Automatic annotation (TrEMBL), chain A:
Record's keyword annotation contains Signal: yes
Record's signal peptide: 1-20
Native source species: Sphingomonas rhizophila
Entry keyword set: Signal
The protein's name in its UniProt record: Copper resistance protein B
From TrEMBL, chain B:
Protein name, as recorded: Copper resistance system multicopper oxidase
Any one GO CC term of the record: periplasmic space
Region annotation Disordered: where it falls in the sequence: 522-550
Superkingdom classification of source: Bacteria
Keyword set includes Metal-binding: yes
SUPFAM superfamilies: Cupredoxins (SSF49503)
InterPro entries: Cu-oxidase-like_N, Cu-oxidase_2nd, Cu-oxidase_C, Cu-oxidase_fam, Cu-R_CopA, Cu_oxidase_CS, Cu_oxidase_Cu_BS, Cupredoxin
Organism, as annotated: Sphingomonas rhizophila
Keywords, sorted A to Z: Copper, Metal-binding, Oxidoreductase
Domain Plastocyanin-like: start-end pairs: 57-166, 242-333, 574-693
Keyword set includes Cytoplasm: no
Length: 406, 698
């Protein structure tokens, strides 16, 4: 409070002395919402339209000397003369269950901060104020419907805003007149480049693992990489598998153009090339990729081969955080085909399904070793094709690998 | 004239470079920010005068004993204190030794636009290995700061404080002052941090997310609410994009273990000039056992208001006056996500320290942060619902406790190391074990000025005790809702009724999800993948304490507590109003105004010279955004008439809105942006043009 002493003389020098000084004097008791000191007793708020009128006159009198007085004037008057009337229905007292501040609070604290915020009453923080205008919410005031009564004087920020038109958008750049257009163009290039136009890159190996299964231990990968901006990106995807000591059984690469079509989803189109199994195939592909509600990562694609085979794939996974770093990832992949093709070993309908459950530990977000299990099963003709080659059509594996990205 | 101190330091650095790297690092701190150790007690040396030289260059810094690369000014991070006098003319010769473009922006200083230092808007930028002279008159006083406006250099260390002494007597009386520059220091380069955010969104740095173990332990949110948030693809634990998992929160360039110390004589009035120069971190600032009287905000004097804690948004400044006794005090700047804290000591003698409070539980977002609040909803009878809002209800995470696997940075251990004994301080949230009802009752309503126990579900008190965030909690919610008179809602307008219905059932995401991206609520927003959500019912939250400061048993500053000391220079009514939506997509890490990134390119926001405009910032995202307008001060519309607090930066709460009146009296082109560095670099920025009226309308 020594502080106040120092401040007072200065306040005295300001134009607002008369009103400001008393307020400052009491401020340290009352300006703080958390203060336990008793607040100065105040009269319970009461409606007093007269005060409101005084407030309202000011905008007209002090109207800025702008040229656009035309549109402004009516607005000021509107805000001034009919603060309450379009919102008669707002009267708090008419709301069942609603307590007026005066009724619900002890006598010495008639004004709750929330109510003050709504313009129901005046916190003693501000200067002695005209009686509050309970029907005027700040939101309404901001819209020019009424004049809030929370303030000491109806000036400045307590005025409603007019509806003057927006000025035209200039086509020139102010800096050009000072530094010349060529130099400023360089600066504008920097400005654009570093404020939303950056390009990024990410490569993610979601599955990169050894698989232990009955007699046929092998390995598998499934990853993706992208480069680009926020909306347009180039994607590469690859997945494949092999048994240890044997040639790669399956290997494919996709090159896709990806475009963001919503907050969470991208559409993707491009080509897929299968190196294995022989004979290799080229597919035209179109699909989607994104984040479904409940944070499921999903993707799906249609593939049309150069031999006319039509296939589809659905993939999804979910990261269940057990702790901040221990994450359980259930994962599923379903492959479908519109026809059976012995050549590529794919049967009509649901050709195969893969279900995995991997538990990883994020040593860093970019580097997470994991263990897990995977079940795979072929269906229909695919099953027959596999058996004909002496391979298992279904089976479990225990997997261990590293999820990583950079 | 080049300041002698700077010259001395340079000579010192040269000597240090010869004697060894470690010593050189120790030298890479400005003398005014040296910790009190080894008898190093001296008054603040400053860089001042009419001719000041600043050199931007690469440095090594040591924070809490760890050395990392940074970019500093005159060899230090933060850069030297630039001390000016109101009325003087100054020439600041800024030399860059970098191989990339650079710049210095004088944050909060009213300078001609061509001297404002934003590449591509006010000037071309400082080219690699070249010099640029800034010249302007100093026509103001107060606490400000300066920083690079190029690339990610602000994160890398290119920032420093400015203090301008008033030409006349200072209305603030004080015997001594300390400048406290708060920041977030990472061993990662800013460019890398931004890349990680682009690659993985907010999940990369957040090590305090919701987990299954937390759910099983009954922490944070109950399962039903977790599901509702997940359905909306929203993370209620996403409080900060970049956290203590990479940041060490610094004061004057020193980490919490370094313990920078400012001296005082007991009984002195000590003015602390607190500057949030962080790239991405908002802080909760407090000095346990020492109330702070706020006397200035953003360099502009305000009527003194005494608080125990304040939240300082990125790029804001607060001057507070404290009157410490004959003991040491801990100055604590806790990141709002409570992933770490900065710490300094105020002490009468060197070598002293005080207990440091523990990190409090990381808050979770509530429906209000989604702009789902009822109070601002419509013009019908529902408007009265605002009266039911109790902004001071404790956060669910404060009641239920935070995730057991949540990780914070090393500063989490300081309380043990410094011998903190509970309960010696207010402002410490009750532990998770406290039942919801107890927590509610534990709130000091009298201290909050309520004078009534609002949580009591008696018929009369029920409305006051009603809170939307409380409704989202299990126990606490049902308790206070019991007293809620649902018939009060019967008069609601249709939209109100729709939103109100699910609220009555506690968790409500299912029906909310439909309205979380309704562009009819914001027709001006461009409909594109960069806009994840539109707040259905944004409300003015300037009367609320920041996230996680609800329900504390001590005084917390809100924007509404700020009242300008002097009458505002322009008290005309605004001739028009302008809404600007703050938009983003956390998953893609895209940020924009009205859905349009700076780089699109976005159209400038035009102002007529000297027109007065009411600007309303509407936050459609779940993060706070400290919005900064260059070249102007604006007056917050917080119910203080001609005494609206004048600011250069205002932090808009999630799901909230803030209005300010601004007089566009500075002709030229100006930057207008979110001061979270990575939001700005993602595109949350515009050019504001101020031109004489051409007579044309649009």
């Amino acid at each position: 409070m020594t502080f106040v002493k120092c401040i007072l003389p200065l306040l005295a020098a300001t134009a607002s002395v008369a009103v400001a000084a008393p307020a400052a004097a009491q401020m340290n008791h009352s300006n703080m919402p958390g203060m336990t000191m008793p607040m100065p007793a105040k009269k319970a708020p009461a409606k007093k339209p007269a005060a409101k009128k005084t407030i309202a006159k000011k905008p007209i009198a002090k109207k800025p000397a702008a040229k656009k007085a035309g549109p402004k004037k009516p607005v000021a008057q509107k805000g001034a003369t009919k603060p309450a009337d379009p919102h008669a229905g707002h009267d708090m007292s008419s709301m069942p269950g609603m307590q007026t501040p005066a009724a619900s609070a002890p006598p010495q604290t008639t004004c709750l901060p929330e109510h003050a915020a709504m313009g129901h009453c005046t916190l003693p923080t501000t200067q002695p104020a005209p009686p509050p205008e309970p029907t005027c919410m700040p939101e309404h005031a901001a819209m020019g419907h009424c004049t809030p009564a929370t303030t000491n004087t109806a000036e400045g920020t307590s005025f409603p805003a007019g509806n003057a038109p927006r000025p035209p958008v200039p086509t020139d750049h102010a800096g050009d007149a000072v530094y010349g257009t060529p130099a400023m163009e360089m600066g504008r290039h920097h400005l654009k480049e570093f404020h939303g136009d950056q390009k990024f890159f990410q490569a993610l190996l979601n599955v990169f693992e050894a698989q232990l299964r009955n007699g046929r231990d092998g390995y598998e990968w499934d990853g993706e990489a992208w480069y680009g901006g926020d909306i347009n990106r180039l994607w590469l995807k690859s997945e494949g598998e092999a048994a240890f000591g044997r040639p790669v059984e399956k290997a494919e690469v996709q090159a896709l153009y990806s475009r963001a079509i919503g907050p969470y989803f991208n559409v993707q189109g491009g080509v897929r090339y299968d190196f294995k199994p022989n004979p290799s195939r080229v597919y035209a592909t179109v699909g989607f990729e994104g984040l479904a509600p409940s944070f499921f990562d999903v993707e799906g694609a249609l593939f049309l081969s150069n031999k006319g085979e039509l296939m589809a794939r659905l993939e999804g996974y979910y990261d269940q955080r057990i702790t901040q770093r221990l994450i359980l990832q259930p994962r599923a992949e379903l492959n479908f085909a519109a026809q059976s093709s012995r050549e590529i070993g794919v049967g009509k309908g649901l050709s195969d399904a893969e279900l995995g459950l991997r538990l990883r530990y994020d040593i860093r977000r970019e580097f997470a070793p994991y263990i897990g299990v995977q079940y795979r099963r072929a269906f229909g003709d695919t099953r027959q094709f596999l058996r004909a080659e002496g391979e298992d059509a279904a089976g479990w594996s225990v997997v261990s690998g590293i999820r990583m990205w950079f | 004239m080049i300041d002698n101190v700077a010259l001395e330091r340079r000579a010192f650095l040269r000597a240090a470079a010869l004697t060894g790297a470690g010593f050189g690092v120790a030298g890479a701190m400005p003398a005014w920010a040296q910790p009190v150790s080894g008898g190093l007690v001296r008054p603040l040396p400053t860089v001042s005068g009419n001719d000041i030289a600043l050199t931007i260059g690469k440095v090594a810094v040591r924070v809490d004993g760890k050395v990392s690369r940074a970019v500093g000014i005159n060899g230090t991070v933060p850069g030297p204190l630039v001390r000016l006098k109101e009325g003087q003319k100054v020439r600041l010769r800024v030399q860059s030794t970098l191989d990339e473009e650079s710049s210095i922006h004088w944050h909060g200083l009213l300078v001609p636009f061509a001297m404002d230092g934003v590449p591509g808007i006010s000037f071309p930028g400082i080219m690699p290995r070249s010099t640029f002279d800034y010249e302007f008159e100093v026509n103001q006083s107060g606490t400000y700061w300066y920083h690079s406006h190029s690339a990610y250099q602000e994160e890398d260390g290119v920032y420093g404080p400015i203090v301008i002494d008033p030409a006349g007597p200072d209305p603030v009386a004080f015997d001594r002052e300390h400048v406290l520059v708060l920041s977030d220091h990472s061993p990662m380069a800013g460019a890398t941090i931004y890349k990680k955010l682009k690659q993985m969104g907010g999940g990369y740095f957040n090590m305090q997310r919701l987990t299954l173990s937390g759910q099983l332990a009954g922490r944070d949110l109950p399962a039903s609410e977790r599901r509702e948030w997940a359905k909306m693809r929203m993370d209620p634990a996403d409080i900060a994009d970049v956290t203590g998992s990479t940041y060490n929160f610094t004061v004057n360039g020193f980490g919490p273990f370094d313990n920078w110390t400012g001296l005082f004589r007991p009984g002195e009035r000590v003015r602390l000039r607190i500057i949030n120069a962080a790239a991405q971190s908002n802080f909760n600032v407090r000095i346990p056992d020492l109330p702070m009287t706020v006397v200035q905000a953003d360099g502009q004097n305000v009527r003194p208001v005494t608080v125990d804690e304040l939240q300082i948004g990125v790029a804001e400044t607060y001057d507070v006056v404290v009157t410490p006794g004959d003991r040491a005090y801990s100055f604590v700047s806790e990141s709002i996500d409570r992933s770490g804290l900065g710490r300094a000591t105020l002490a009468p003698r060197e070598g002293m320290s005080a207990p440091v409070p523990p990190l409090r539980p990381r808050p979770v977002l509530t429906m209000k942060d989604m702009g789902m609040d009822m109070s601002g909803m419509n013009h019908g009878g529902m408007a009265g619902m605002a009266g039911m809002d109790m902004p001071n209800a404790p956060n669910p995470a404060a009641v239920r406790g935070v995730d057991p696997s949540a990780e914070q940075n090393a500063s989490r251990n300081l309380w043990k190391l410094t011998g903190w004994k509970e309960p010696t301080d207010h402002g410490t949230i009750k532990s998770a074990a406290v039942a919801a009802s107890a927590a509610m009752a534990g709130m000091d309503h009298a201290a909050m000025g309520h004078g009534t126990a609002a949580a009591t579900p008696a018929p009369t008190g029920s409305m006051a005790g009603m809170d939307h965030s409380a409704m989202t909690q299990g126990a606490a919610g049902s308790g206070s809702m019991a007293g809620m008179d649902h018939s009060a809602m019967t008069g609601a307008a249709p939209t109100g009724g729709t939103a109100a219905a699910p609220m009555g059932h506690g968790a409500s995401g299912g029906s909310m999800s439909h309205s979380m991206r309704d562009f009819s609520n914001a027709p001006q927003v461009d409909k594109n993948p960069g806009v994840q959500t539109i707040s259905p019912n944004p409300v003015d939250r300037t009367g609320e304490p920041g996230a996680g400061l609800e329900g504390l048993d001590h005084r917390v500053l809100t924007y509404r507590d700020l009242v300008s000391l002097n009458r505002n220079p322009d008290v005309r009514a605004p001739t028009r109003s302008l809404d600007i939506h703050l938009t983003g997509n956390m998953e893609r890490y895209m940020w924009s105004f009205d859905g349009v990134k700076m780089s699109e390119p976005a159209e400038p926001i035009p102002f007529r010279l000297n027109e007065r405009v009411r600007v309303t910032l509407i936050n459609d995202t779940m993060m706070p955004h400290p919005i900064h307008l260059h070249g102007h001060f604006f007056e917050l519309v917080t119910g203080h008439g001609a005494y609206g607090p004048r600011k250069h930066t205002v932090n808009v709460a999630p799901g909230g809105k803030v209005s300010f009146d601004v007089t566009a009296d500075a002709q030229g082109d100006w930057a207008f942006h979110c001061h979270n560095l990575y939001h700005m670099t993602a595109g949350m920025m515009r050019v504001v043009t101020v031109r004489p009226d051409q007579g044309g309308n649009q």
